[in-house]
């Protein structure tokens, strides 16, 4: 089933001589269990694509569907609800809340959605377990490493069984071994049915994906299937 579907999506900033086509007639399908890496030069539209896919940007034309729900025409509140229920984000700088401990950070999207607190906790614990960090649940963020923080951010992205994870340069702040660990975690989630869209500048990381989509000047210029073999990827790490 398609978790994310973009059809003929165009995003234009400015007008007249200063017009920029940040995305130009982009069509993309990401199914359950699909891991897609988006690559392209600076300014090619990668972040714009993620923002639109995640319902964070509304000034586009075309059609976008997330988990079967069309985004066009949704009001701000409905978009926010859809985001909380279906979309998880992973950013380079983690975007965790420093005053909350690990499990509180992971439970936060569910609590914002007014989920029963004990259910939110239980779901957060399950997400931490999926990321192999159940033992960190009670730690403060300043008591864990950068790689562990990124795993916490990924746990938050999937908590409540969300099926779409959008990751924007998630390894940018990490050393290469820790970055590979994060990629491996995203791969495992995709193998488990989550749809993952990763923006990266690093071909080595894109190698963990099933497919690499290349953007240039807002257009998809190539889409390549990757024959991924984790053993080879790790050996080359
Ligand atoms: N809010 C905005 N207002 C005007 N132009 C914008 C805005 N956001 C992005 N753009 C332009 O849209 C184009 C695509 O930008 P985008 O940030 O999506 O590229 P990117 O591929 O993510 O770049 P990078 O790799 O540098 O992060 C660029 O030309 C950028 O300058």
Automatic annotation (TrEMBL):
Q: Which UniProt keywords apply?
A: ATP-binding, Nucleotide-binding, Transport
List residues of the ABC transporter domain.
4-235
GO cellular-component term (any): membrane protein complex
Q: Which domain of life is it from?
A: Bacteria
Q: Per the database entry, which stretches of residues form a coiled coil?
A: none
Q: What InterPro entries is this protein classified in? A: AAA+_ATPase (IPR003593), ABC_transporter-like_ATP-bd (IPR003439), ABC_transporter-like_CS (IPR017871), ABC_transpr_LolD-like (IPR015854), MacB-like_ATP-bd (IPR017911), P-loop_NTPase (IPR027417)
Fetch the SMART domains from UniProt. Answer: AAA
A GO MF annotation of the entry reads: ATP binding
Per its record, how is this protein called by name? ABC transporter ATP-binding protein
List the lineage, top down. Answer: Bacteria, Bacillati, Actinomycetota, Actinomycetes, Propionibacteriales
